[in-house]
């Protein structure tokens, strides 16, 4: 039963095979036209492949060599005539052969069949040696051929892969040819899939072959072929998975052929070093059964392998991590498995393994590492020290390379070597000294080779006028320094690798030692690049040392060892040098490169982070110099200064830089004043002061009294230097800008008077309540006058109001007592008045500063520098609204600056005249009627070419494209030429006339009792208040040349604005008002604010002048009705 049960599936499967094999065999044998029958043959072959693979996946126990032989019979008929069939048929047969080998013959392949299949597959893939291919072989066929060849070699009995003394049974020659085909596929430019299958076949050969003498025959060609693919230039054209496969195959070849266990007999012979031993064979050793395996062969092979490895190991610069890991495994395997046989190659293997060694966290504990090998083979430590010293000595030369990857690999190699040296407890003072010099020289080389980056000043994105939003504690963006050296984006990776090397170069003591050796170059070097490189290196080493010490201090206390004290001493010396660099800064002459100053800022900030609030006493020395860099011409230094201030504020416990500077304003201001008082003419003081005021805002202004006094003194001493004077007034302008923002600017003490609003108000009907109030006030005044008339007569005082010079007459006791009481009452009243006056007269320091600054501007408004004159006028415009609420203090200032300010209207520079007009407008708003007589005095008489009126006529003429002398002569209040309005016939106004003489002009009376006054067709109109239609200003304000933004047009607009402010806030005489109206009547339709101001003063005059100019049309008035009278139309201008 069991036999039947077992044979039933096999029999069924056999019947399935038979139904396909018999037709296939008959077709292959009897076919006359192979090409015509190829399709049917291919179908049978694919059917057999599917049957076989399906059975193998389900139950391969019934598949054996006999079934495979049965299927192979028809296949042999097809293969015999393979040249006559298409390659798809051959490919299908080869695929079926692989299934037969893997699941049918397995290890029972006969020697003859093995040799036949080797030759068949080799010829199919590579062609017959010495003959040209009759047709091209597709890539898919080659891939199937290599897969079948690999399966054949893997499944064969290892006994088949040995030399045989029986003629005709030696399979090694056929295998050798197959190996040649594999090597050719690897070295030739073929698709990566073919190369991968060829490498897999090579691995199968060196795994399945146990005879070392056979492998020795294949070794040279295999190493040469794989080395060619792994060496430049082919390695650049090869995919990384092919490179990884080739490296793994090369590792297998070396270990299986030259492994110490494989050739231990030859190694013993080399140790004895006797000539006789080289000629005799070592019995019992498999590797000695061939005459080729001798000590001489081993030496020659090891030498050739070293040459091949030197080319292959160049892959360490490959960017692929997979390739680097495969190469690292190759080096470790050769150092371990071929330690004695490839002893000559240990140096390059150790060097490459050091370069490619991964971090401890990334490396698996199950894999052998280089450190493990050093513990097993102590002699490898000499190679590590030699490699490390060679790398350190050659690092400056490597930094000259144009390839950033090469630089990074060199730096990374030193780092890994240093870590391994520390783990091996290698202590070498020579290596330490060489390392310090090499790092310094390398940084110098990198700095000289790097181009200065094109820095874009991005500080415009930082609003320095908003200190609370500028820099706050915890702002990571403004608390990070930009790199001082190697700042370009292309050098970022190199800079990071260099930083990693410095931070992990060794223990903290070594870093302090290296930093100490740099201090002499920092202090004494005359070469700027050397000094910068030494400074940067020492600072980075100390930072890394402190970081390591902090980690260790959490676990242990090393204070007794003195390392911490030495660390602090070195850093203190570095900090002292930094403060000297900061203190010696001057904008006129920069004694230090900007990189050195930037590093000094970083050292100062780092020291502050270590000391935290204990750093506050150091602010006396460093805060002002750090702030000085805010005015540097270098964007990098400005950014460093902002970052440093941010770190200082955060470390010292301040919420912002504003709080930092305000809290330390006393000695910062002393430093600024000291510079000004010591005749320091450099712009640094003014720029620092301007930035400081801008950062702190109004809170600092009350502390600036002495500083402003020093600025005034500097202005007196250096008034002949326009640039410096302009910088000083920038400071005063910033004081004004921030001072007007103060919320305690008004007079201190008492009840502050509200700001006086000088804006004119139009007449408003009082109504019944207003009339009653007016009558009540009048009656009150009448009653008061009556009561004064009824009071008894009081004689004139007979004593002086003040203390007299004459000797007083003697009085009685009663008289003296009464006089004393009267005097006490008078004294108390006088004291109260004086206290109130004093109380009102007390001013805030900010107010006093602004007053002094405004007074000072009068002396510099005649400066030859137009920009300074303009900035002073803007300063006046800014400060006037802040000072005007106190009229007692402000009006005297107006009297002081008025003469020089009014003359600026005639400035030759238009932008200065525009600023002057704006300043005068602000003065009118603040002083009001106080300027009435002054404006009348400078207005000028009509018909004369002097005064403010003449200036406005000139400005208007230039803006309108007219000549200077043009005026509106001959124009009456009602008649005249009309002045630019297009008026049609029939235009006029209505006047009353007697009905007895003329009667009503019924022709002029419209429907509904309305009299239509039509002024004809004119310019386009727009509705206005009061039932009038006003002409658009576009017809009258457009200049004839220059455009809207020309200087003449803008100056005229400023003049119109000045007139608007004068009429709005200052009481003007009627004559002056009429003259002003005559000047601006043409622009009134487009100037609503000006028109409202003019109408507030005299609306009727404005309406009449607009009507007179023809700027009104379509006014509808109600027909007047009066008994005994009628109204006739009077033509204007005789029409």
UniProtKB/TrEMBL annotation:
Residues 815-829 have a biased composition (Acidic residues). Residues 783-793, 804-814 have a biased composition (Basic and acidic residues). Pfam families: TPR_TTI1_C, TPR_TTI1_N, TTI1. Gene3D superfamilies: Leucine-rich Repeat Variant. Residues 14-360 form the TTI1 N-terminal TPR domain. Residues 805-935 form the TTI1 C-terminal TPR domain. Residues 783-842, 963-989, 1016-1044 are annotated as: Disordered. InterPro entries: ARM-like, ARM-type_fold, TELO2-interacting_protein_1, TPR_TTI1_C, TPR_TTI1_N, Tti1, TTI1_rpt. Residues 972-989 have a biased composition (Gly residues). This is TEL2-interacting protein 1. It comes from Podospora comata.
